[in-house]
Design brief:
The chain contains no helices and 7 strands. With about 110 residues, the protein is mainly beta.
């Protein structure tokens, strides 16, 4: 199988890359991958209808958007404890192709 890769972003240290990918182009299942820049230590973080993964300013977590049952949620994946948590339910007016960004204070 050929995988398709999208939305790659480097960690603040430049040592890791987070990205979305599909293992099967015909599937709606999008996954988040995390890997060292040399290609080692690949980790699949989450799967589903996912978009816009990016590192926090301190590199300790990854922010991403996931659609569940027609609703868009903002998630944070903590790299220290390997857990994802919902930060917020996004408004119905949220544009699927909008991108998430961290603010100056890291949120």
């Amino acid at each position: 199988k050929d995988a398709s890769f999208f939305e790659a972003n480097f960690s603040p240290s430049g040592k890791k890359i987070v990205f979305t990918y599909r293992e099967d182009w015909h599937s709606d299942d999008v996954k988040i991958g995390l890997v060292n820049v040399d290609g080692s230590d690949f980790l699949s973080i989450d799967k589903g209808n996912i978009q816009s993964p990016l590192f926090s300013k301190n590199g300790g977590s990854i922010l991403y958007i996931k659609m569940i049952d027609g609703n868009h949620y903002l998630f944070s994946y903590d790299l220290a404890d390997s857990k994802s948590s919902v930060i917020a339910l996004l408004p119905e007016t949220f544009n699927r192709w909008s991108e998430a960004n961290w603010t100056g204070d890291g949120f």
